[in-house]
Specification:
With 181 residues, this protein is an alpha+beta fold. The chain is built from three helices and ten strands. Strands 3, 4, 6, 8, 9 and 10 form a six-stranded antiparallel sheet that branches. The model has no long low-confidence stretch (mean pLDDT 84).
Length: 181
């Protein structure tokens, strides 16, 4: 049996070239789509960080504040905030934890506090104050002593948040920056 020889006429060559160009166009189109999707996700990426400060406004006027800062270019949508203490977990904010579980008395003056809860959206380039404590130096010192005691007992926290595209991150009391999940 003899094999048929393929004759290469201009129609077959043109057809093969058209198929190759179509496949190359498909590959390029797919690559561009992936690039556009990545760019779109990055253009809405939140970047949360915990900021703390202790300020002295006068000789007897001290404040300690903690806030959640969104340095990103898109809103951060909080999924949950969890506090861990003595091998237990609590889905609550700092001040509620201190009052309900750490049994903090009125010796620490809480001037302002905000809830951090699932569904909370923190817009790009904005701040969500978590708490402001103080007014007198002794109250700030008491807070730092309580914080030190809690840390020895295994206190730590994590905040899970997402972008509008569903990309997820976690920040903790030990993290340098957000960790992608």
């Amino acid at each position: 049996m003899t094999g048929k020889k393929i004759s290469w006429d201009s129609n077959k060559i043109l057809s093969i070239c058209a198929i190759c160009i179509s496949l190359l166009t498909l590959v390029i189109f797919t690559y561009q789509t992936v690039l556009i999707k990545n760019q779109s996700h990055l253009s809405a990426m939140p970047y949360l960080a915990i900021e703390t400060s202790t300020d002295q406004l006068g000789p007897n006027d001290y404040y300690h504040t903690a806030s959640l800062e969104n340095y990103g270019v898109g809103p951060a949508i909080i999924e949950r905030m969890t506090i861990f203490h003595n091998n237990k977990s609590y889905d609550t904010d700092f001040i509620s934890f201190l009052k309900d579980y750490a049994l903090v008395s009125d010796s620490i003056n809480v001037l302002q506090s905000s809830k951090i809860y699932g569904g909370l959206a923190i817009p790009a380039n904005s701040t969500r104050s978590m708490f402001k404590i103080g007014r007198r130096p002794l109250q700030v010192d008491r807070f730092f002593k309580l914080q030190e005691k809690l840390m020895k007992e295994g206190f730590h926290f994590e905040i899970i948040y997402r972008s509008i595209y569903g990309d997820r991150w976690k920040i903790t009391d030990n993290s340098v920056g957000p960790e992608e999940l």
